[in-house]
Amino acid sequence: MPKTRVEAFSDGVMAVAITLLALDLPIPDPASTPHLAHTLAKQWPSFAAFAVSFMTIGVVWINHHAMLRRIGRVDYATLMLNLLLLLFICLVPFSTALLARYLTESHGAQFAAAIYGASLLLMSCGFYAIQRHVLSTRTELLRGGMSPELRAQVLRRNRAGLFPYAIATAAAALSAYLSYGICLAVAVYYAIPRTTSDVMDDDLAEQHDPPG
Questions:
Q1: Could you give the count of Cα atoms lying within 13 Å of 127 in the half-sphere of its Cβ?
Q2: Per-residue confidence (pLDDT) for residue 206, from 0 to 100
Q3: Does the pLDDT at position 173 exceed 70?
Q4: What is the pTM of this model?
């Protein structure tokens, strides 16, 4: 299958997932909302969860593009792993809505935060699985120009990105806010552009490290 079809389909799925995040934002009913600003302020968990999920999916989209630029062709395993990644991305709008609904509740908040952290962890695992396949198992799929040292470095960065989400999932047992805060910190960290001297050439160089 041409690589362009994989990228086009993936872009479409990620765009729909991000759109679903926005569609779930609450709009107060004018008939029962005497003070719009106050009502919107009370719904801050929805906007907070939306911001983190939007940044997270956005960074995955950036790094997914960077990953495909390194690949010259795709095999069946790459296609299936990419579908698995997209499956996990499609779960994010659900877990985001769940967290937004329960974050300030006295019951269910910790479980909702655990589900949210787990959905981001699964998404990161899906991304890492693709990277490991093309950078370690099937290096002949690469376009070339990527040294073994650089491949190992990219995989280490991907692997390291799994731990914060695992910690966030476990931390939900202590506090839903702590779990959310860790996810927020990870999203901000990976959203900040970074330059690196470990580039292959002008065509393959990227400024972002994959988030898991």
A1: 33
A2: 40
A3: yes
A4: 0.83
